[in-house]
Amino acid sequence: MTREFVDTNVLIYAYGEAADPRHQPAADLVGALGRERRGALSIQVLQEFYVNVTLKAGRPLTPAAARERLRALGSWPCHRPDQDDLMAASELAADSQLAFWDAMIVHSARRLGCAILWTEDLNSGQIIGGVEVRNPFADSPAPQ
Predict the structure, then answer these.
(1) Up-side HSE of residue 43: CA atoms within 13 Å toward CB?
(2) Per-residue pLDDT tens for 13-62?
């Protein structure tokens, strides 16, 4: 079974407002990856998710509701970077001309053995460090 890494933005849309056209594709993807036990993420993703859904969302979640989502996602494999991971991500950023935080996401996906990284932040179809980038919203209507 191949793991698939989920970036922060996908989680935000999955648990966000149903009126957003990205909600349903994200919710379907996150639900399927959870049921099939193929989803993976990192501490970075969980931290970004919590901050964004409690402070920056159009309709923020309460901290308690956000913690419930974190608990649910806690059963997924989660990369917890160390110093060696930071160095590897910085090298990947330089080699691939990525922002450091994007390189850290790709590196985390790679460390967890993921073949696919679900995000809207990188070019869909691109392969970085052996990980294929896919955009779950590529066929969805553009955000309003």
Answers:
(1) 5
(2) 998 777 788 999 999 999 999 999 999 999 999 999 999 999 877 788 89
